[in-house]
Amino acid sequence: MIDLFYWPTPNGHKITLFLEEAGVDYTLHGVNIGAGDQFKPDFLKIAPNNRMPAIIDTAPVDGGDPVSVFESGAILIYLALKHDRFYGETQRERTDILQWLMWQMGGLGPMAGQNGHFNIYAPEQVPYAIARYTNETNRLYGVLDRRLEGREFVAGNGYSIADMAIYPWIVPHEAHKQDLNDFPNVKRWFDAIAARPATLRAYEEGKTIQAEAKPMTDEQKAVLFGQTAANTTKA
Questions:
Q1: What does the alpha-carbon distance between residue 15 and residue 97 come to, in Å, rounded to a whole number?
Q2: Is residue 153 a contact partner of residue 159, using CB atoms and an 8 Å limit?
Q3: Name one Pfam family in it (predicted).
Q4: DSSP tag of 7
């Protein structure tokens, strides 16, 4: 059984995509990041970076004590290795998958995240920041489009944790000022993943959790976007 500490953001969706595809039993625990749940001492014990998602595996393969994992990329690798799913079959495949997972973690996620912040959440319009992150997101879409030319999936020889990591960051493409029609290979790949039954189930789980929350207030936005070391409660 996996306990998943989660909020329906792109990083949260990565993990439900895997769990639904692999048919792993899991329990969702909502971490309302607008309400500051990520600073609660019990959560910090498993996620010291005060970010979700995080998991607790209550049945690790060694039969020992429960294992906690934070950081979405690390969680995907942990689950893929445990269940021997979606991580290729050879060292070459795994290297290919791993580099595209890291591309998402180090490039697409941070840049699209800043894009969303300055386009949607920032209390004032900052033209330089909007242009900087919108353009960089566009460049990264171009990288992905070239990679997907003649390929069904991003890496390896099939659907993998690289696709699961990247897809949720393409979902908000309109909010990030990107037109998928400009990237036909990305659009084909995106539409195929969106239609997968496991993807539909994963996003329905997100709607269930999101329904418990009210729209963020200005005070909650200040909590979410104004974090410093002083905000973090020590576990």
A1: 16
A2: yes
A3: GST_C
A4: -
For residue 86, give the nearest of 18, 147, 150 by alpha carbon: 18
Distance CA 181, CA 179 (A): 5
Domains of the chain, start order:
2-85 (3.40.30.10), 91-194 (1.20.1050.10)
Alpha helices in the chain (DSSP H): 10-22, 41-44, 72-83, 91-103, 109-116, 127-147, 161-170, 184-194, 197-210, 218-225
**Encoding tokens for residue 135?**
């353009």
What is this structure's pTM?
Answer: 0.92
| Per-residue pLDDT tens over the stretch 63-101 | 999 999 999 999 999 999 999 999 999 999 999 999 999
Inter-residue contact 24 to 201 (CB < 8 Å):
no
Give the three-state DSSP class for 83.
Answer: helix
